[in-house]
Amino acid sequence: MLHAGQSLNLFKNWAEDEKNMLIMPGYCVAGTIGHKVLSGMKKIEIEKKLINVRLSVQYMSFSAHADAKGIMQLIRQAEPKNVMLVHGEAEKMEFLKQKIVKEFGIDCFMPANGETATITTQSDIPVKVSDRLLKRALEEYSGFLPAKKALIKPSHYPVEGVLVVRDKGVEVIDRCEAESQLGLVPHEIKFSCIINPDVRSTELHQLPDKLQSVVEKLLPDHSVMRLSEYSIGIDYSTVLIEIPEPSSTKLRISWDFKHNQLGESVYSKLQMNISRLL
């Protein structure tokens, strides 16, 4: 212990600062630097230089050696993703390696002296989410919950934001925050489709009322609201269904890119069923 190498270099640099602590985890042979430190010596000569030992010194009884049973128990408790066996008889190490792989389903390495072992790891990158983005996402999601499912609390909420990489870390922020911080001019993409249903059996003045009834039947899990005589909003106007010309039976469905999935679903259901239901 503290005989040479990096541990000795660190001790020489840290020994004189009383804010530091040295923990000795094992036996030290008499006459070694480690034994002198554990004995309480306050001045120790190292490489012809006198070192004042002011740091706190603690002893912990710990052995780096263990039998197969002890190693298996340690793996079971620590749940590592990889194990490397570095000391022991080759045949017994190979047997233990196979046992570790079979019982725990993890990679086990047994490199020879001088051999390099490469362990592939997965890095976890913490990402901060701005308060503004979370509040907006929760408000939007709670606003779209139908009344009959209002008490259901889903375990996941969809959140759409802008990923920003800074010197201090990674953050997902609200679109408006990104526009303000980066000086960007927002552009909005909207979709609009026309359906020309066969509604010869329906008089024109009845079309708006019948259309609302059909939409409510096709979309039972969404809120359907009459916005005007000739327009209907789905999920608080996320998707609009309009009769652009009162004297025509054509229907216009429009939505923005953010709600493209809902818009395409509404358009598909109306296109397939509107003529039959009207």
User: Given the C-alpha coordinates, what overall shape results?
Assistant: elongated
Report the average pLDDT across residues.
Answer: 85
The total of helices stands at: 8
- The arrangement of helices and strands along the chain is HEHEEEHEHEEHEEHEHEEEEH
Strand content: 15-25%
Q: Which stretches of 5+ consecutive residues score pLDDT under 50? A: 144-152
Protein described:
It is elongated and about 105 Å long. The protein has helices at residues 6-14, 33-38, 68-78, 90-104, 131-144, 175-182, 207-218, 260-277; strands spanning 21-24, 43-46, 49-52, 56-59, 82-84, 107-109, 127-129, 162-166, 169-173, 190-195, 224-228, 231-234, 239-242, 251-256. The strands form five sheets. It has a five-stranded antiparallel β-sheet with strand order 10-14-13-12-11, covered by helices on one side. Helix 7 crosses helix 8 (260-277). The longest helix has 18 residues, at 260-277. With 278 residues, it is an alpha/beta fold. Residues 144-152 have low confidence and may be disordered. The protein is built from eight helices and 14 strands. A hairpin with an 8-residue loop joins strand 13 and strand 14 (251-256).
Nutshell version of this structure?
By secondary structure, the protein is an alpha/beta fold. It contains eight helices and 14 strands.
Topology summary:
Elements: H1 6-14, E1 21-24, H2 33-38, E2 43-46, E3 49-52, E4 56-59, H3 68-78, E5 82-84, H4 90-104, E6 107-109, E7 127-129, H5 131-144, E8 162-166, E9 169-173, H6 175-182, E10 190-195, H7 207-218, E11 224-228, E12 231-234, E13 239-242, E14 251-256, H8 260-277
Parallel strand pairs: 1-4, 5-6, 7-9
Antiparallel strand pairs: 2-3, 8-9, 10-14, 11-12, 12-13, 13-14
